[in-house]
Amino acid sequence: MSFVIGIAGPSAGGKTTVSSEIVKKVKEHGNNITIIGHDNYYRDQSHMSMEERVKTNYDHPHAFETDLLIEHLETLRNGGTVTMPTYDYTNHTRSEKTETIKNNDVIIVEGILTLENKDLRRLFDLRIYVDTDADECLIRRITRDTQERGRDLDSVLTQYRDTVKPMLIQFIEPSKRHANIIVPANKDIRKAIDLISNHLNNII
C-alpha cells in the first residue's frame, strides 16, 4: 500500500518546491514517488463562456472535484491505476489531455486546500503545511501568473484582493491545525525537507 502525503499551504507558497525536493531525495534512495496536484481536479468549465470562467472563485472548496480525487486516491492506495484529469490555466478549464497515474511507494498530493476536506485528510499518512508570508506569496503569484499563465497584472491583483486573500483567511490558514508538520518557508526549509525525506526513506 502506498504511503500518502498531503501538502497544503497558501497559493504560490512553495508547496510545489517542497514536493519536488522531497521527490528528488526519495528517488535518490531508489524509492518510487508520484506527485498529484489538487489543481488538476478543478471542475470542468468547458460548458461556460470565458467571461463566466474568469469569475469563478478558484480558491473555494467548491471549485474542486475533490470527490473524484478521493476516489482516485483510494484506488491508488489499493494498488490500482487511475486516469487523472489535467488543467489548462490559460483557458480556465480542464484540458483534453489526461495522465495515467500508477500506484507508487509514496504519493504526494499538493494543493491549497488538501487539508481542508476531512474525507481527503483521512487518506493521508502524513499531513504537511507550508507556512509562507502572505506578501511573499503575492510577489511569487504575480511572477508566476504573468510569466507562465498568460495573465496581466491587473487581473492577478484583482483576483488576489477579491478571492485569494479572503479564501486564505477563511479556509487555507485554518487548515494548518490539521497538519502533523508545519514547514516554515524560510532558511530552515531545507532542514525540514531533509527530516521529512529521511523519515520516508526509513519507513519505505
Q: What features would you describe in this structure?
A:
The protein has 204 residues and is of the alpha/beta class. It contains seven helices and seven strands; from the N terminus they run E-H-E-H-H-E-E-E-H-E-H-H-E-H. It has helices at residues 15-27, 50-54, 66-77, 118-121, 134-148, 153-172, 189-203; strands at 3-8, 33-37, 81-88, 93-102, 106-110, 126-131, 181-184. The strands form two sheets. It has a five-stranded parallel beta sheet with strand order 2-5-1-6-7, covered by helices on one side. Strand 3 (81-88) and strand 4 (93-102) form a beta hairpin. Helix 1 (15-27) crosses helix 7 and helix 5 packs across helix 6 (153-172). It is globular. It starts with a strand and ends with a helix.
Give keywords.
7 helices, single chain, alpha/beta, 204 residues, 41% helix
Query: What profile does the largest beta sheet have?
Result: 5 strands, parallel
Mean pLDDT: 93
Strand content: 15-25%
Strand order of the largest sheet: 2-5-1-6-7
User: Which oligomeric form is depicted?
Assistant: single chain
What form results from the Cα inertia axes? globular
Strand-helix topology:
Blueprint: E1 3-8, H1 15-27, E2 33-37, H2 50-54, H3 66-77, E3 81-88, E4 93-102, E5 106-110, H4 118-121, E6 126-131, H5 134-148, H6 153-172, E7 181-184, H7 189-203
Parallel strand pairs: 1-5, 1-6, 2-5, 6-7
Antiparallel strand pairs: 3-4
